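chain below, 448 aa
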Amino acid sequence: MESDTIDASALTLLRARPEDLPKGVFTVHVHGSPSVALTVDGSAPGPLIIGSSRACDLVVPDAAVSRRHLSLELVGGALLVKDLASKNGTIVNGLEIREAMLRGGEQMTIGGATLLVARYENAPNPPVPFARAFGRLLGESRAMRRLYPLCERLAATTVPVLIEGETGTGKEVLAEAIHEQGPRAKAPFVVFDCTTVPANLVESELFGHERGSFTGAAATRKGVFEQADGGTLLIDEIGDLDVSLQPKLLRAIERREVRRVGGDRFIGVDVRILSATRRDLEAEVQAGRFRDDLFHRLAVTRVTLPPLRSRRADIPMLAEHFFRQAGGSGELPPALTARLTEEAWPGNVRELRNAVARYVALGLEIMLPEPDDDAPATKAADLAPTDFIAQVLTQELPLAHARARVVEEFERRYLERILEANGGVVTRAAEASGIARRHFQRLRARSR
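prediction:
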């Protein structure tokens, strides 16, 4: 654990935006039960949850309170409250809200319970370790730095971890980092993506199959559980797993054994389970699309990765990292860095990485301020004849088709460049490009 003493390595904090720095401490307690309270001080690795589920940070055992009813997070000097699509709503001072910023002194009503909010302006916030990364997961904002101590503790264990977050936030990167920082680092790390396998082959991919067990099963094949034996298995987008297969997955996890499709014996496996999802699994449980017992088995511990828009202090650092990774020389233009920091990034870190890589590979001045109206317009005919973008523009294709052509060419050039820089070794090239090996191979096959 790094020291909390401020030194030269801690100066990265000076680049944090003001809203990244909490001010004061809030407490929320159940009226009539002052001992049932929650302190919000900005140190938790994600929003704190109030609801009736035992997994919540503050449990309110009321039948009218949803399992995950609302979330709380310290933002600057205010407490951000979000209703999590609860069945009976969240009432603040008599008004039903979806999202609100509280300053202290408010009353919240959820179900039959009243919650009292208090603010202690001069209370010190707990220190957050100064760090720029956890393994290959990068970020120096407070939102990321407060995750790292939890990640370090999880890496040292073998408990199941559920990683939650929007698409592109780096869930697979965090899973790899947990594996690489733990005692199983030298053992296999296997990824099974529930969204990329046809429904009729999911069971075979998970548990393996015997030769002749179905049409096309020409040979016996190990499933991902057996492939990951002794190591770690990441089940990506677990929320998309068909409900009919969830009991079999639960059994395999609990009994630490699998039976191949068409097989007649159980095979013992020693696998650490990590899972990731972009979905709200507790909402999926309530809707009957995900088994409650499987959810609790997977969510022994949970980590929520913040979206990039909630950790803008990391964008300059990430953009510079991706710029170097893609072979960029010199420095990113300051105007470009400033504009990158202000973008919404619905695709999160993945979208930022791709945008910077396009800039390096194709020279596209992505997201720079628009030229002045008085400036002479640049036409495709004025561009160099060797410029691929110009060639696409002269074809006058529909926007979607033109964009696809540019992206395809970018991917082809990028893969050639990164492979050459790493001696043609796919594993090293994938690591240098900051993406999973399986995704790198998919891109490579598509660009051929």
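The longest strand covers residues 33-40. The longest helix spans residues 399-421.
thats it, cya
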